[in-house]
């Protein structure tokens, strides 16, 4: 039974990897984003456009150190900003260019998912 469960996990992983490959290609070609970047921006947008890094990492189910590596290029290109909020806590904010790019990329991602 465990061999079947393992095989099912491998098959799910391969199907997911194939879909991510298509999404990376489409989003990268048309918007300069990877699927992982798109998901990060989507989660940040769903959080009202700002979230503490620890909460964002938890939502993305990734270690905080991995989140930081994902945020650095997005910050350099002006899509997000990392800064302290009014209470002095660190916060990641989706900037206006990030909102625009996310809005433009949604149709591309939706079409790739539907295909």
Q: Give the biggest sheet.
A: 3 strands, antiparallel
State the helical fraction. Answer: over 70%
CATH hierarchy, class: Mainly Alpha
| Count of discrete domains | 1
> Which structural class best describes the helix and strand composition?
mainly alpha
Query: What is the residue-mean pLDDT, rounded to a whole number?
Result: 95
Output the strand order for the largest sheet: 1-3-2
Q: Beta-strand level of the residues, as a percent range?
A: 5-15%
User: Unreliable stretches, pLDDT < 50, 5 or more residues?
Assistant: none
The H-and-E topology, N to C, reads as HHEHHEEH
Under CATH, the topology can be stated as Arc Repressor Mutant, subunit A
Task: Tally the helices.
Answer: 5
Q: Total number of β-strand segments? A: 3
Taking all Cα atoms into account, the compactness measure Rg is 16 Å
